[in-house]
Automatic annotation (TrEMBL), chain A:
The lineage of its organism: Bacteria, Bacillati, Actinomycetota, Actinomycetes, Streptosporangiales. It comes from Actinoallomurus iriomotensis. Its main location: membrane. The chain crosses the membrane at residues 6-36, 82-99, 119-140, 160-182, 194-218, 224-242, 249-273, 293-312. InterPro entries: Cyt-d_oxidase_su2. This is Cytochrome c oxidase assembly protein. The keyword Ribonucleoprotein does not apply. It is found in: Cell membrane. It is a multi-pass membrane protein. NCBIfam families: cydB (TIGR00203). GO terms for molecular function: electron transfer activity; metal ion binding; oxidoreductase activity, acting on diphenols and related substances as donors, oxygen as acceptor.
UniProtKB/TrEMBL annotation, chain B:
Pfam families: Cyt_bd_oxida_I. GO terms for cellular component: cytochrome complex; plasma membrane. GO terms for molecular function: electron transfer activity; heme binding; metal ion binding; oxidoreductase activity, acting on diphenols and related substances as donors, oxygen as acceptor. It is found in: Cell membrane. Keywords: Cell membrane, Electron transport, Heme, Iron, Membrane, Metal-binding, Transmembrane, Transmembrane helix, Transport. This is Cytochrome ubiquinol oxidase subunit I. The keyword Lipid biosynthesis does not apply. GO terms for biological process: aerobic electron transport chain. It is a multi-pass membrane protein. PANTHER family: CYTOCHROME BD UBIQUINOL OXIDASE SUBUNIT 1, CYTOCHROME D UBIQUINOL OXIDASE. Belongs to the cytochrome ubiquinol oxidase subunit 1 family. The chain crosses the membrane at residues 20-41, 53-71, 91-115, 127-150, 187-207, 219-237, 330-351, 363-385, 405-431. InterPro entries: Cyt-d_ubiquinol_oxidase_su_1.
Amino acid sequence: MALTTVWFILIAFLWTGYFFLEGFDFGVGVLLPVLGRDEAERRVILTTIGPVWDGNEVWFIVAGGATFAAFPEWYATLFSGFYLPLLAILLALIVRAVALEYRGKRDDAPWRRRWDRALFWGSLVPAFLWGVAFANLVRGVPLNAAHEYAGTVVDLLNPYALLGGLATLTLFVLHGAVFVALKTTGEVRRRAGRVARLAVAAAIVAGGAYLLLTQLLYGKPVTWPAVAAAALALAGAALANARGREGWAFAGTGAAIVLAVVTIFLALFPYVMPSTIAAANGLTTSNAAASPYTLKIMTIVALAITPMVLLYQGWTYWVFRRRIGVPPTPRQPQASPRPVR
Amino acid sequence: MNPLDIARWQFGITTVYHFLFVPLTIGLSALVAGLQTAWVRTGKRHYLRATKFWGKLFLINFAMGIVTGIVQEFQFGMNWSAYSRFVGDIFGAPLAIEGLLAFFVESTFLGLWIFGWDRLPKRIHLACIWIVSVGTLLSAYFILAANSWMQHPVGYHLDTATGRARLTDFWAVLTNSTMLVAFPHTITAAFVTAGLFVVGISAWHLARRRHVEVFRPSLRMALVVTFVASLGVAVTGDQQGKVMTAQQPMKMAAAEALYTTERPASFSIFTVGTLDGGREIFSVKVPGVLSFLATGHFDGKVLGIDDVQAAEQAKYGAGEYRPIVPLAYWNFRLMAGIGFLTAGIALLGLWLTRRGRLPANRWVWRAGVASLTLPFIGNSAGWIFTEMGRQPWSVYGVLKTSASVSPGVGATSMLVSLLSLTALYGVLLVIETRLLIRYAKAGPPSEEETLGGDDRAEPSLTFAY
């Protein structure tokens, strides 16, 4: 297999990992006001992602870095072309990360309320905009002969892309609801299961419509099985959730996300960024790629390090595998400093 | 403003801001790991209290380092797409490896450390913070390899077909001579930063004779670290000066505002004047010192700005090859001056607190608290000097900054980006500083508060939120 294809697959893998992992983080952030009725419950919900969200987010950073290294042209065109949506994503991720880290650092209700709001928007905006961005990748954008983006931000907000945004948003919210149900006990767990029932309907409508449209407009024979499997996974998740089988439900939503990303990348290949102006202006795995020497080095590095990353990230999930519940007697919040004159 | 200026302002603001948090993260992670090791080995409670106290401040700072780092990873593509296309074959690799090797390690093991107090065996929990610390060093290594390539491009050739740089020797990029001096200089400076951070906050408490059992050991440890690291900064900075003189003669000439070549060249401690090559009004000069800084000999020849300008014009064609000289001159002095000052402060501090002493004079403690700000100013000055002194180049001798900016991004988009990021960063700085001060003043947890987790039969729920 050509190294350019290997790197296309590796980058698809990184995005898949990112959406699978950070997808439930986003969902948890969006659902926090719905699922957490009081402070104790909100803490339980946030503790489900507390030890892992930052590691999950690194998948995005590495996907970006790997794109820079393996497909510099893609990196340059994508991030300068999708400028304002990407800026919105970056601002949202900053606000969200600070909210996660700082909300518990003061024992102060208005402080926490403000950060909860920041966490909600900071999760909602990227969950939606990632769908918009990837739908535009599949659809193609105006690229000129120099591979520079020649459109405006309005071109990116077309109906198909907005549907893509809704698809990722509903999928991630569902994924988050199922994750909370899987990781908690008591009332929070039951509530998350009920919310997941609504979310799964929304995800089937928006996600299903988006995937079907993608297949009909930009699909290939090879993407049909992925689309069909994604639909099956969602149906399976709905069924498992209805029966209270949380592990299976989470596997179902996770598989649906993975298969949706696989569909997108299969539909793209061999393009990484098709042009709507002229096919020759589009970026492909070969004309966007770094030199064979760089790809060779990066392949060795990636093959050596990635298995270790998967191992220790997997170990983290194992360490924090226990469900979390509201303690019977609420303890004093340990994170609040005592006032000092 | 044109897109180039806006993109440069954004890079300057976001990078200097990011680097307020980075050195503290690098240095403090090791100090916290050291304190926790002391606790694990001796079992003394005050080490645990110190670990928890400094660990909390470390985390508040670390969060800011992460979020500002996200912007760094993507603004090359957003604002500097021409640069990204030109250097991508070389520059992308260390960035990707940094993420794969360092960011995953840091984020994952930090999560384990924060939430693992009750869940992990003591020694494995300790290993987590050490791994984070090593991760920060790896991160520094790869990002400095990338930056050093911009200062002194090696291991590449210019592809005549595409007009872009192509990697030919990755090992050369990883062992760039610039890198080999920049890495120890940056790391030792990071330890000075963390050292004086601990000194400053410990001084605040010790002035009030509060938590002496926690803050006296913290202070002494930090003073030693600061002193040793300051010496390291001076030695590595000296080596860096010589490498820089050989690789970028213009930067050394600008650092001294030396317009005409001199042999031997004297070093001015400060100058009253415009630094435009006209007559200075007043300056304090030490003969031969610039020659020594630049070449290692007190009678070495140091090229002046005018001569380097002529030489570079001959080499690269007509154009302006001079950076903003006063900026280089003053930032160089600020950086170097602070470097010497921190060594002096640390030595004085060690003397004043020798053998159990705690000075009674309030001004000593106030000076100790104030010294906390010095490394942040010195670090910023050092980077502003390094990056502004390289102008007009983004990759020295190969690619100009003016040819690096994204051609397809309009001034309005860039302005939206610059203003929104600056505003957000401003707000976050206020929030972060207030939070740090609040926690710093609150002091360490009491003995009873640390009696949790590992001493209990049933692991408790960890609520970090």
